[in-house]
Design a protein that fits this description.
The chain contains 4 helices and 10 strands. It is of the alpha+beta class. This is VOC domain-containing protein.
Amino acid sequence: MKEKMENPLHLKSLNHISLLCTSVEESIDFYQNVLGFVPIRRPGSFDFDGAWLFGYEIGIHLLQSEDPKNMPKKSTINPKDNHISFQCERMGAVEKKLKDMEIKYVRAKLEEGGIQVDQLFFHDPDGFMIEICNCDSLPVIPLAGEMARSCSLVNLPMIQHNKQQIQQQLVQQ
């Protein structure tokens, strides 16, 4: 068995995900008005269309497809597909809002050791899967060595640090 290295690449956090879009404008509308992301300045030196958004300590980089008509689009909501997941405070409020916005979704439940996690899965305008959950009640249990923590507490020091960085960036703009 190989020796485990703590952080071989000296990573600090997840910075962003990039998503190819059929329409950057439609995707901006979705990520801003459905998920609450905020558009931020994107380097002007890029020679292709796109947009950057930020929220919940992560960036979403939207990239305009060069061939939007031929982009594959998923219509079936499959919780086992690639997705990004966001924790929420009140699942009932999220589900009501999705219904009000007429966004199709799939509900799932996970139960582990008496802990129940509710999940809602839906697509962005291009079929990329989004999950909303109350996953912070599920403990993160390392396979060996460290003590168990909740999802919310694992990255608490990094979250606090990132909030300070964002506030400094907003002041500079």
